[in-house]
Each structure stands twice: as structure tokens, then as C-alpha cells.
């Protein structure tokens, strides 16, 4: 399992958001891994098994997801910064709609 995983739920339609590109970046913006959400809205393998403690970022390419359904969106990209402090697994979900989003540290 990757040290970081994610999933995206489209709360505007009440289902997983498939086909969203996701990048894992380090604190300098270098891409460490990329993935695309599957039919369940998940990216199960995103980067290495272990990340050093520090600052990281997930970038979700939401513009193309909404464009595919003809839905205007205020957020063409969602960027989530988070800190890795230990060897635990980090699950970082995104709850998405065209004009709002929220996140939390999952399990």
C-alpha cells in the first residue's frame, strides 16, 4: 500500500468522482507520483511505501472532470497541503462539488 492514498466523492451528485488526475508533490512542488481516480473515486497506489516526515501536497485536476459533464466549476484545481509526521498511513479524501470542497484526514 502507498503511504498516501485518496478518494474523491462528488457531493453534488452523490457518487464517487472517477477520472480525476491526482499528483503527489513534495514541499518544493516536485511531482513524486501521479494517478487517476478509478470508478470508486479512489487512487490506491500513489507514491512510495514510505515518505520522509515533511510537507506534501495533493493536486486534483477537477476542471476536466466537471468539463466532461458540462458542469461549470469555480475550482479548476484543488490543492491540499498536509504534513507527514510519522510512518503511519495517510488517507486524504476530497469531498467535491462545483463550487465548494472539503477534506479531512481519513483512515
TrEMBL record:
Q: Which GO terms describe its molecular function?
A: hydrolase activity
User: What InterPro entries does the database record attribute to this sequence?
Assistant: Hydroxyisourate_hydrolase, Thyroxine_BS, Transthyretin/HIU_hydrolase, Transthyretin/HIU_hydrolase_d, Transthyretin/HIU_hydrolase_sf
- Is this entry keyworded Hydrolase? yes
Q: Where is the Transthyretin/hydroxyisourate hydrolase domain?
A: 4-106
Q: This protein's superkingdom? A: Bacteria
| Catalysed reactions, semicolon-separated | 5-hydroxyisourate + H2O = 5-hydroxy-2-oxo-4-ureido-2,5-dihydro-1H-imidazole-5-carboxylate + H(+)
Alphabetical list of CDD domains matching this protein: TLP_HIUase
The answer, when asked if Ribosomal protein is one of the entry's keywords, is no
EC number(s) reported in the record: 3.5.2.17
Q: Which UniProt keywords apply?
A: Hydrolase, Purine metabolism
Q: Which family does it belong to?
A: Belongs to the transthyretin family. 5-hydroxyisourate hydrolase subfamily.
Instruction: Give the quaternary structure.
Output: Homotetramer.
Job of this protein: Catalyzes the hydrolysis of 5-hydroxyisourate (HIU) to 2-oxo-4-hydroxy-4-carboxy-5-ureidoimidazoline (OHCU).
Q: What name does UniProt use for this protein?
A: 5-hydroxyisourate hydrolase
Say which species the protein is native to: Frondihabitans sucicola
Upper lineage is: Bacteria, Bacillati, Actinomycetota, Actinomycetes, Micrococcales
Amino acid at each position: 500500500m502507498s503511504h498516501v492514498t485518496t478518494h474523491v466523492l462528488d457531493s453534488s451528485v452523490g457518487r464517487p468522482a472517477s477520472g480525476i488526475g491526482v499528483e503527489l508533490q513534495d514541499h518544493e512542488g516536485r511531482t513524486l507520483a501521479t494517478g487517476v481516480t478509478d470508478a470508486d473515486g479512489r487512487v490506491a497506489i500513489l507514491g512510495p511505501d514510505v515518505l520522509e516526515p515533511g510537507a506534501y501536497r495533493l493536486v486534483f485536476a477537477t476542471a476536466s472532470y466537471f468539463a466532461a459533464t458540462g458542469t461549470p466549476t469555480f475550482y479548476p484545481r484543488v490543492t491540499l497541503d498536509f504534513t507527514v509526521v510519522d510512518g503511519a498511513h495517510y488517507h486524504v479524501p476530497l469531498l467535491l462539488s462545483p463550487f465548494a470542497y472539503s477534506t479531512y484526514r481519513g483512515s
